[in-house]
Amino acid sequence: MFTQGFRLVLRRLVVVLALAALAISLSGCPALMVPSLAYEGYKYEKNKQQPKAQSSPSPTSPNDSDLE
Questions:
Q1: Looking at 1-68, which runs of residues are DSSP E strands?
Q2: Is this structure's pTM higher than 0.90?
Q3: Which tens digits make up the pLDDT trace of 13-62?
Q4: What does DSSP assign to residue 28?
Q5: For residue 41, what are the contacts with CB-CB under 8 A and spacing of at least 6?
Q6: Distance between CA atoms of 22 and 31, rounded to whole angstroms?
Q7: Residue range 2-9: average pLDDT?
Q8: Counting beta carbons within 10 angstroms of the beta carbon of residue 20, is it exposed (0 to 12), middle (13 to 18) or buried (19 or more)?
Q9: Which of 36, 37, 19 is nearest to 28 (CA)?
């Protein structure tokens, strides 16, 4: 049905496409291709790097009237 040359070209094409799909999927690029998903990842990473706020109340500063 197909000639041997065509089968060779078809096999090479399939291998190249499979390797390209594998490289793209393992590199994290699909997440960057969807803008909203990429932005959610950016917000997550940004919030992860910020220090946590302390839950205990901070000490009150002295009033100016106390200093007189």
A1: none
A2: no
A3: 999 999 998 887 787 766 667 778 778 888 888 888 776 655 555 555 55
A4: T
A5: 31
A6: 14
A7: 89
A8: exposed
A9: 37
